[in-house]
Design a protein that fits this description.
This protein has 190 residues and is an alpha/beta fold. The protein has a single domain, classed as Rossmann fold. It has a 6-stranded parallel β-sheet with strand order 3-2-1-4-5-6, with helices on both faces. The chain has a two-stranded antiparallel sheet with strand order 7-8. The longest helix is centred in the last third of the chain and has 18 residues.
Length: 190
């Protein structure tokens, strides 16, 4: 159900960025056209070249890197997308979204799009349980953002608890199920 979908994969700067590589590959294998946007911090964990090779698409890292003078890149890509998935979504990116901060390519695009946005958090269990993050996630849900709950288990920081980025296969299945649900409701009136 992801065949021919235009998906932006937003990758923010956490150790779980390595899982975003597998997610980009799986989305591409499903027939989706995937464009990756990375925060500067994400490039410390995985290189843009990795995502370019997996998706065969340009990777966006800099809001001021305008390759086509006729188009404003973050607006053009925001309009292009059928859906956006942020994986991993760090506490920082969640806080920026909830506050309306647009200070890089990913956040400016997120504020400019009309496409549905899926957020897959990944962070330390204590960060995930912090009242500020819970409040920001509730605000984003009220605005129509969709959350893909993180898994529980051993975290890179050594803690054990909820905060692991959900597995790429599960994220793909959630996106496919959501597309099926929307398709089955299309044209129906209640």
């Amino acid at each position: 159900m992801l065949q021919d979908k235009k998906i932006i994969l937003g990758v923010s700067g956490g150790i779980a960025a390595y899982k975003a590589c597998a997610l980009a590959s799986k989305l591409t294998q499903e027939g989706a056209s995937v464009k990756v946007m990375m925060t500067k911090e994400a490039t410390h964990f995985v290189t843009p070249l990795t995502f370019q090779a997996l998706t065969r698409q340009p990777v966006y890292t800099d809001v001021f890197d305008e390759k086509d003078p006729v188009k404003i890149a973050h607006i053009d890509v925001a309009d292009w997308a059928d859906m956006i998935i942020i994986a991993p979504a760090t506490a920082n990116i969640i806080a920026k979204l909830a506050s309306g901060i647009a200070d890089d390519m990913l956040t400016t695009t997120l504020l400019a799009t009309k496409a549905p946005i899926y957020i897959a958090p990944a962070m330390n269990v204590n960060m995930y349980d912090h009242p500020a993050i819970k409040k920001q996630m509730c605000q984003l849900e009220k605005w129509g953002y969709h959350f893909i709950e993180p898994g529980a288990g051993y975290l890179a920081c050594g803690w054990i608890g909820k905060g692991r980025l959900e597995e790429p296969e599960t994220i793909v299945n959630i996106l496919k199920a959501q597309q099926e649900k929307e398709k089955s409701l299309a044209g129906k009136r209640y």
